[in-house]
UniProtKB/TrEMBL annotation:
Membrane protein topology class: Multi-pass membrane protein
Organism classification: Eukaryota, Fungi, Dikarya, Ascomycota, Pezizomycotina
Localization per Swiss-Prot or TrEMBL: Membrane
Species name: Apiospora phragmitis
Protein name per the record: Lactose permease
Major subcellular location class: membrane
InterPro entries assigned: MFS_Sugar_Transporters, MFS_trans_sf
Domain of life: Eukaryota
Amino acid sequence: MAHVNLRFYNVGWNALAYTYLVEILPYQQRAKEIAVEQLMLRFAVFFNTYVNPIELDWIGWKYYIVYCIWILVEIVTVSSEVGTDQSLTISDMFFPETYGQDTGRALFHV
Protein backbone atom coordinates (compact mmCIF):
# COMPACT_ATOMS: atom_id res chain seq x y z
CA MET A 1 0.00 0.00 0.00
CA ALA A 2 2.85 2.39 0.76
CA HIS A 3 4.26 1.72 -2.70
CA VAL A 4 1.01 2.90 -4.31
CA ASN A 5 0.90 5.97 -2.08
CA LEU A 6 4.48 6.86 -2.98
CA ARG A 7 3.73 6.70 -6.70
CA PHE A 8 0.80 9.11 -6.42
CA TYR A 9 2.77 11.40 -4.11
CA ASN A 10 5.65 11.61 -6.60
CA VAL A 11 3.33 12.27 -9.53
CA GLY A 12 1.73 15.17 -7.67
CA TRP A 13 4.88 16.61 -6.12
CA ASN A 14 7.07 16.49 -9.20
CA ALA A 15 4.55 18.37 -11.30
CA LEU A 16 3.50 20.82 -8.61
CA ALA A 17 7.02 21.91 -7.69
CA TYR A 18 7.53 23.37 -11.15
CA THR A 19 4.06 24.41 -12.24
CA TYR A 20 3.48 26.56 -9.15
CA LEU A 21 6.76 28.43 -9.65
CA VAL A 22 6.07 28.90 -13.35
CA GLU A 23 2.65 30.28 -12.47
CA ILE A 24 3.77 32.93 -9.98
CA LEU A 25 7.18 34.00 -11.32
CA PRO A 26 7.86 36.44 -14.15
CA TYR A 27 9.70 34.94 -17.08
CA GLN A 28 13.00 36.66 -16.24
CA GLN A 29 13.18 35.16 -12.73
CA ARG A 30 12.04 31.60 -13.32
CA ALA A 31 15.42 29.94 -13.81
CA LYS A 32 16.97 31.58 -10.73
CA GLU A 33 14.03 30.82 -8.46
CA ILE A 34 13.70 27.22 -9.64
CA ALA A 35 17.44 26.77 -8.99
CA VAL A 36 17.00 28.18 -5.45
CA GLU A 37 14.00 25.90 -4.85
CA GLN A 38 15.96 22.87 -6.02
CA LEU A 39 18.94 23.82 -3.84
CA MET A 40 16.70 24.10 -0.76
CA LEU A 41 15.13 20.76 -1.64
CA ARG A 42 18.57 19.15 -1.84
CA PHE A 43 19.50 20.61 1.56
CA ALA A 44 16.31 19.15 3.04
CA VAL A 45 16.98 15.73 1.53
CA PHE A 46 20.56 15.81 2.85
CA PHE A 47 19.34 16.76 6.33
CA ASN A 48 16.67 14.07 6.38
CA THR A 49 19.08 11.42 5.10
CA TYR A 50 22.17 12.10 7.21
CA VAL A 51 21.29 14.30 10.20
CA ASN A 52 18.00 12.78 11.38
CA PRO A 53 19.52 9.31 12.06
CA ILE A 54 22.35 10.89 14.07
CA GLU A 55 19.87 12.86 16.15
CA LEU A 56 17.70 9.80 16.72
CA ASP A 57 20.72 7.84 17.96
CA TRP A 58 21.79 10.73 20.16
CA ILE A 59 18.54 11.63 21.98
CA GLY A 60 16.25 8.79 20.96
CA TRP A 61 12.50 9.22 21.05
CA LYS A 62 12.83 12.78 22.43
CA TYR A 63 13.83 13.85 18.93
CA TYR A 64 10.15 13.65 18.00
CA ILE A 65 9.44 16.39 20.54
CA VAL A 66 12.09 18.54 18.87
CA TYR A 67 10.50 17.75 15.51
CA CYS A 68 7.02 18.76 16.73
CA ILE A 69 8.39 22.02 18.15
CA TRP A 70 10.09 22.75 14.82
CA ILE A 71 6.81 22.17 12.95
CA LEU A 72 5.09 24.57 15.35
CA VAL A 73 7.79 27.19 14.67
CA GLU A 74 7.24 26.76 10.92
CA ILE A 75 3.47 27.15 11.27
CA VAL A 76 3.80 30.31 13.36
CA THR A 77 6.40 31.79 10.99
CA VAL A 78 4.39 31.14 7.86
CA SER A 79 1.11 32.33 9.34
CA SER A 80 2.70 35.54 10.63
CA GLU A 81 4.84 36.33 7.58
CA VAL A 82 2.50 35.38 4.76
CA GLY A 83 -0.80 37.09 5.28
CA THR A 84 -3.94 36.45 3.31
CA ASP A 85 -5.58 39.13 1.25
CA GLN A 86 -8.62 38.21 -0.78
CA SER A 87 -8.32 41.17 -3.15
CA LEU A 88 -4.80 40.40 -4.42
CA THR A 89 -3.68 37.56 -6.63
CA ILE A 90 -0.49 35.63 -5.88
CA SER A 91 1.37 37.50 -8.60
CA ASP A 92 0.23 40.86 -7.20
CA MET A 93 1.32 39.92 -3.69
CA PHE A 94 4.83 38.85 -4.64
CA PHE A 95 5.58 41.01 -7.70
CA PRO A 96 3.33 44.11 -7.67
CA GLU A 97 5.67 46.31 -9.70
CA THR A 98 5.80 43.78 -12.54
CA TYR A 99 2.08 43.91 -13.15
CA GLY A 100 1.67 47.67 -12.70
CA GLN A 101 -0.63 47.48 -9.69
CA ASP A 102 1.63 48.47 -6.83
CA THR A 103 -0.77 49.21 -3.98
CA GLY A 104 1.89 49.13 -1.27
CA ARG A 105 0.35 45.98 0.21
CA ALA A 106 2.81 43.46 -1.21
CA LEU A 107 4.04 40.72 1.10
CA PHE A 108 7.65 40.87 -0.03
CA HIS A 109 9.56 43.45 -1.98
CA VAL A 110 12.22 41.91 -4.16
